[in-house]
From TrEMBL:
The keyword Cell cycle does not apply. Residues 52-268, 457-677 form the Fatty acid desaturase domain. This is Fatty acid desaturase domain-containing protein. Pfam families: FA_desaturase. One of its GO terms (molecular function) is iron ion binding. One of its GO terms (cellular component) is endoplasmic reticulum membrane. It is a multi-pass membrane protein. The lineage of its organism: Eukaryota, Metazoa, Ecdysozoa, Arthropoda, Hexapoda. InterPro entries: Acyl-CoA_DS (IPR015876), FA_desaturase_dom (IPR005804), FADS-1_CS (IPR001522).
Amino acid sequence: MKGQHDYTRTEEKIVETQKNRRGYNFVAIFHLVLFHSLSIYFLLFKLTAPQWQTYLWNAFYFFFSGFGVSAGVHRLWAHKTYKAKTPLKILLAICFAASGQETIRYWVRDHRIHHKFSETEADPYDVRRGFFYAHFGWLATKKSPLILEKGRSIDISDLKNCPIVSFHDKHYQVLRLILCFALPTTVPVYFWGEDWWIAFLFNALRFVLVLNAVFSLNSFGHSMGSRPYDTNLKAVENYPVAIATFGEGYHNYHHAFPFDYRTSDMDYYFNPTMRVINMFAKIGLAYDLKVASPEMIKRRAQRSGDGTHRKISGILIQRPKQFSLDSHASLIDLFVCKNISCTRCSRRHLPSSSAGSCRVTIAAGESTATHKLIVHPHLRVGMPPNKEDIDLYDDRMESFVDDMPPKKISPLFSMDESEVDYNQPIKWFNVFALSSVHILSIGGFIIGITQVKLMTIFFFFVYGLICAFGVTSGVHRLWTHRSYSANVPLRVILMLCYACAGQNKIYTWVRDHRVHHKFSETPADPHNSKRGFFFSHIGWLMKKKHPLCIQQGRKIDLSDIKNDEIVQFFDDNFIMMKTMFCFVIPTYIARNYIGEPLWIAFLANLFRYMIVLNGTWAVNSFAHTFGHHSYDKNIAPTESNLACNLSFGEGWHNYHHTFPYDYRQSEFGIHKYNMPTMFIDFFAWLGWASNRKAVPVEVAQRQAKKRGDGTRFEQENKAGISN
């Protein structure tokens, strides 16, 4: 019937009718062209002109105004996902005014229309009209009569009753002029003497970046990505957009559960807006935070998702095409029962029933095949023994070594590597980020090596050593393997040192490393050296994890990490800690206290960052490929002098995988190059480190004689140790 409209989501071509015909908005076109032109001019001709304080100021103001959009007008006012007290509402209104967008009522009304009529002719930024239209073409055209009609039906009474929103909307033009343009331009000029023209251009760039970050949700967030929660929605999960918008890019989840204040059920994803809201909730300014229940999320993902949800258990759900018994018949033998005998299990201290096991079910059609993994407690090489094991350790270890059958401790399951599908998707953002770091670091080294000051080289060497202690003595030997205990001050120091290294969250690092030890050189190993030297060194960061790795990672016990308040503080503030301690502080020190030019200080710090990263990765690649097998020739890890030099003492890897709970990581302790051991011993002397676990010399000797390749005794002579 004429005049009626079908609001179903369809891919059909949109036909111009009287209901959706619209004209051009020339005022908006003028402003968009003007500010984008000024930004491009600044990037091409004036990018190196500002003072370093101006860079920091505009970066801060970018975050400040961005949070006004994400935490304020979007999650608070548009979706009412949480409630805020008056001081927080005022702060968010100021932040939103700094972003230079529309009035709060205008923004909220359009966004509620977008959710209610998404991908229909009533959608203000309907992506079916094209990528450009969804990005900012919708601003360049007037709203159609249909959108205006549906907009009048949207309930925004909650905003009309809010005095803060009413004040913002009434004084919108003045607030926008002051907070978006006048204030951010005046501050650099007044406080550190920046040129007016440069300050204005830089602020114009900041304004344009904020706009395009928000626009990317309408374009990239509705066209490029996965749909783990609902394939019937155009909205997608797009990680680069999430980074640009402080956590708003998990858009398929957001459209499936728009009332959830997190906009994602993956709490460990990049989501600073959620963490800011959590912070205000802790101090009582935010409350009534709404979340979707795990059961609801799981049902939605299983019913209508595309199978890419990372928390849904079961390999078939995650990668249905890669793990079917029809296409991989030999996978029926993927998990092989291994009954490993040990005389200790027959004694009263440790009954046989304590041997661990885990089950994995692989589905194919209507049938399932379940196989059991038998993991002997003393072969769980990723974790130290429990208290009972420690009590028995010294007097029974020799018989344990003698009585173990000559079988490989790792891998824990036998499989034909040719039958394993390693074709996981590439993580393009990581590829870009890692490539950029290496290109800039190497290029900066070549260009700036003759210009950098000797004091700068010394400073970044010391800073690199601090980073190394955070990785080796901190996240590796303390938090992953619990090879010694540390009091609160030492744990805080190690946390700060690790922040300087600029790596993953402590929780992620520990989980991946425990999985690596427990399933070393298997598909469940995050950096499986059987997949090649490049993969084990850096390639594992460039591809998504193998489904088995994800599955086994969920089973790793991380209760000690979850209960560590220092670790939780670091992980909750991960982005801020990494940015400040890995990039801002060392660059600032080199610039202000040593007197380096800003670009030299930045590139020198980036080179230090690259060296620290590759030093850590060398343990996964070099120390699993080149070297001796002094203690166990049946496992891949080696004793690698090169990896040891690059990682300040972590390269004695054959010993470490044989005795992972030894805090020294080497039988010869400080007699070989092992600075983390010296670090731990020093703090033990101060009384800050305690309960250091070490393997007796005679036990290491017997292990080397029984399983080693004979090179252990050569190393003993070189270290100058006598029995």
